[in-house]
Structure formats: structure tokens, C-alpha cells
Description:
The complex is a heterodimer. By secondary structure, chain A is an alpha/beta fold. A six-stranded antiparallel β-barrel of chain B has the order 1-2-5-4-3-7. The N and C termini of chain B lie far apart (38 Å). The chains are: A alpha/beta, B alpha+beta.
Amino acid sequence: MSRTREAFDALTADLTGRSLGRVIKGSLLEGIEARLDDDVTVEDVRVGRFVVVDGARNRFFSAVHNVKLANTNEDVLLRPPDDGFVQEVLRGTNTYATIDLRPKLLIAHGEDGVRPVKTIPPHFATVREASDADVATVFGAEGLTSLAIGKPLEMTSDVCIDLERFVERSNAVFGKTGTGKSFLTRMLLAGVIKADLASVLVFDMHNEYGMWSEDEETKKKAPALKEIFGQKVLIFSVDPASSRRRSVTPDYEVQIALSDIEVDDLVLLRSELNLSDAQVRDMDTLSEVWGPSWLQTLMSHQDAGTLTEVLEGFHAVHEQSVKGLARNLKKVVKLPFVKESVTDHSADRMVKALLERRHVVIEFGGKTDFLSYMLVSSIVTRRIHERWREEKEKASADGRIGHPPQLVITLEEAHKFLSPEAAHQTIFGTIAREMRKYNVTLLVVDQRPSGIDEEIRSQLGTRVIGALDDERDQGSVLEGVPDAKALRVLLNNLEAKKQVLLGGYALPMPIVVEVRDYYDFAKATRRAAGERKREIDLWDR
Amino acid sequence: MTRLGEIVEASTTKLRAVAPQTFEGPAFGSFIKTSDGSRTTFGVVAHVEHVSIDPSRRAIPLGRTWDELRREQPQILELLTTEFEAFCVAFAESDGALCAYLPPVPPRVHDFVEPCTTEEIVELTQDLSFIRTLGASGVLIVAELVAAAIRSAAAHHGDQRAYLVRAGREVADLFRQDYELASSIIRRIRVPERAHR
């Protein structure tokens, strides 16, 4: 008997999971219907519960997608019994309950590991609650490159995300406000950093990823990336005063030179800056003629009142429109971190750190200031785009593998960057669509998934989805996902604070989990990171 | 040995017996047995009646209480008799296990009828096929008969309520085409909820 055969037998011999019912109907297309055993109370079976179906040669894994009441006799419904005894007697004979299952994976006799289903279990196959061994078989155990993110409903073994696969594609964390998106995102990023699988760049709009973040509900301080990983993480602050107020000492202040700002960055800010189509065209013309310093040139002419004369030499631009443009762009020039010239280009410094496999958190001071947020994000990301492309092409030419390092760009309020209008014009759309080839992926964090371009959504590899209220959001997060209708039921039944639906490239099958406690996670990760660092220090000596 | 009666008519489906004492017949729905020495046949009492011993002469109203009648006309008891009918539901050969279906041959006339012991009732009613046999008996009061038999069986089972639920489900299953009938039987065997708790 082979080792795998033994493993299978050991697994299937484990009948510790309570029997729930038997398969009565099914098709590969529509899923399986099982009748609940009479001694199983329908109220005990929760949607999202992880179950197994024991066929003759395979064990199938599924979640409970629906629970239904059924009856054999219409007369019962006309005169429902009010007596407890009669109700109990009729349960199972005239009335019964069924559950809908969607097996996704199976493990077969004598085979190693799970594979996707291509068949269904036979009539009357037993459905039972999955045991911890089953969960471990499907979702693996926490290891160097896998992150335990939580546990299936009412179970004690971990559901693990395969981080190597996770960083290979763009991913998303969705959920309405207060569903713990930032806790989850931090956990995912900390997992990636700990496993040393990618450099991490975070555009941290609400100051949640640097040192500490405050739990909105408990007011407890939760350690963030720098607090966990120390010097491996660099904090860049756009608003150093705000950082100081929160007793955070940033590693660097963000400084942007006027010449760093390109037309594309401003196109992204169209609605923030009230730019018309004509003004966008004007910017293109000006930058063509004046080169990289076009913005500086424009502003100095505007300040000096010489704009009218200068514009006489242009054919394609309208004077009034350009004057309006200059007025609108004043908002950008006046931003405190935008300088005429800088000694230290923040974007370059960040790129360098990221190429050295360090991690960067850009703090924005907590104001909901989309102008700063989007401008900086756009400039930095554009620079990364250029450098990673170059580095990758160089590395390919030299035959070097694993260079440039994998990079995960974390984007909060992602719909601002990836809306259908913005996605085709801005750098973020390009990254989401094609930068996978150049080792750059996005981690999109958003509460309005319906605001994100459809094509970008379809590129998302792994999705972590918390509770969503809006119909459109619920529909759009699952768009293009197989079995979206069935998953929608799970999504509808998530508990806002604790549960998320996981699915996609880094997981063997979609599943609802109760997210693990962040504080324990942070503590354990910090301890592990500390130990690892000591080990490395010893080696260095 | 408690003798409940003596068989006067028998077929493979039912028997008729006369009680030794007038007014002292078995209870409706109770379990009885009769043995011919090698085979024991088990049945459920489906009908009990007190009649005149002479079918052509009915009893007439006398306007007296039983105390007065016993004093003044003691011969009256001798003119009356108690008879009962039972449906066969199972049998056992002397050396074999219990078979929960009809016997191959009827019990003999003049064999005695006795009540079943608790052990016998438990063994006989553990599987619920007696409910099907009684349900198919074709009597008009099938709901009453089935309910009475289930109640009398339940009294001998440890967990009475669990037994009644199981039997009730068998009834619901058996009469699934006739919800009215099934529910009338189930209502007749239900445990009053308050008394149970």
C-alpha cells in the first residue's frame, strides 16, 4: 500500500465529523442536494459550513450553500400541526430539510492531494461535517510560505493562504466600513513580509500600516508593519507634523519636485482639479513644448503675468483655457510637499529601498485628502513602473531569475484609481492589467468594489471579501467567478466583524472563515521576525 | 398462568375467543398470545364484546343495579358471555426467533389465550411491522386500533416518548397518502407535552 493510499484511508476512516444527511439529488452543473438526517436540527446547519461527502471512491469537499425546508405532502402545509409531539413525528416523514452543496475539490483513493471535481457523489452518499484533518488536507498547514488567516465556521484547524501564489497576481480585500479590512490587509502584508516573498509598498491613507493603528471600536492600539518588522519597513510621511503628533518618527519626509509631476498624474486628478477635456489636451501640448519642467514654466509665467505673450506662439491652445488650467493647478503647486526643486527625490529613494527588498509605508497624515494621496501614489507608482520594467528587461537579458523582486503595491480607496474612467488612462490600470509580467502586483483595498473597472476586477487573483451591503457591490465582487450565484448566498450571510469569504488563485476552493485574532497574530509574527533577525545577525558575524 | 380466553374461531389473520369470566376480557389494543405446543401466535385485541350466550335472545333492560341483580337473579351472569377478537401479527416456532408476520396456519380452536409478557411485547414491537399489519386489517376503526396498540406497546418500552415518536413516524410513513388518517392516529398517541415535561 502506498503512502498516499494510507493517507487517504486514514483520512476517510476518520468519521469523527457528525453525519448530517444523505445525497438525494445532484448534478455537476447545479450542485448536490442532500436530505438532512432526522436527528439533525435544521437550525444547527449554518450556511458556509465546511462539509465532506463520502462517495465510494472519492471524498468530496464543499461548503453548505443553502438550507431548505421541504415536505412530502401538501396537506401538512394546509393544517400545520401546533402540537410539539406531532411536529416531531412529522419531521422526517412529512416534513424534512435539505442542504445544497457545491463540491469543489475531491481526494481520490491512492492519489496524493486534492484535485478539482469532475464528477459527483452517488445517491445516498453520507454528508458529514468536515473534520480538522479534512480542513488541513485541503487548506494545508501554516508554514514558511503559507499564512493561516482564520478558521472555517465552527472548526479549529486553519485555513491557509498560499502566499507564493498570492503575490503572483493582483488581489483584493473588499468589505464595507468596519469589517476589518485594514486588519486583514495588514495580516496579509505581514505574512508576505515574513515569508520574504515580495517587497511591500503601502499607500497608507489613514495611517494604519506604519507603526500603530487604532481599533475604531475598542480604541486599542494594534501594532502595524514597522512595529512588527522594525528596520525592514521604512515610513515615508507626507505630513510629518501629523506623524509627530502621533509620536511616529518617519524615516523620511516625502518631497516631490515640480518636474516629477507629469501630465498623467494630473489626468488622474481630473475631477479633484476640475480639469476639462480641453485643459487635458492643453497640458499635453505644453509638456510637449516645454519638456519635463512644463509645470514649473507654466506656473512661473502665470505668476509673472507673462502667460498671454508666451501663448501667442502656440496654435493649438486657447488662452483662457490655459489660464484656467494654471489656476486649477495652483492647488497642486501649493501642496506642502511639492517643491520647486528637491535634493532628495522621495520616489527614487522608495524605489531603491523596494529593490533592496525592504518595505515602504507612505503615511498621508490621516486627512481624507485625495489630492495628495492620488498625486503621490501616481508619481511613485509611475516611477516603479518604469524601473521595474527596465530592471526586468535587464534581468531577462542577463538571464537572472528573481529580479527585480516581486512587489506588492497596496492601494486603499482603490476605486479612485481604478474607476472605469481612470483605469484606462492611469498607471494603476496598466499595472493591474499587465505588470504581473514585470513582478508587480496590486493589493486593492476598497469598500466600493462596484466602482472598480470591470476588466481590472476580472484580473484579480485572490479575493478576501467581508460583508457588503450594497447590491451592486455584492454582485460585482463575484463577477466572473465560477458559481457566483452560490457564493453570493455565502456573502450575504457573513457576520460583519468576524467572517470573510476567501477565494481565488491562492486558495484551493472558496471558503468562509472566522478571521484569526490580529493581536495574537501580530505578537507571534513579531516574535518570529525577531528570532529570524537574530539568526541572521549571528550568521553575519 | 393468566388465562384470557379460549379460542372458538380462528383464521390466519384473526381469532375469536371467549373469556372465562363474563366482563373479564382483555383490553382493546393489548397484546395476546396462544400456543399449540410447537408454535406461538401473537395477536392484538381488536374487538371485545359482551353478548348473550344465545345469539337468538338479546338481553333486555331490567331496571336494576348490578348489586340488586346479583342478589335477586344471579343466573343472569351465566346467560352473558364476553368474547373478543384479535388480529394475528406475529408468530414464533418453539425453537425459532420471532417472525413479525402472519403465521402459516391458524391457531387451533380450543387453545387458550394468554397475555404477552413485557419481554415478549418489547421484542414483538421493537420493529414496527405490527403497525403495518394492523393498518392493513381493513377494520373500520383502524385509527383507533393502531393507536391503542401503539399505546399499549409503548407502556412496556423504557423511553416511552422516543418509542411513540418512532411509531408515529412509521404511521406517517404508512399512511402518507392519507394525511387525515395519519394525523388522527398521531394525535391519539401523543404524549401530553406538559405531563411529559
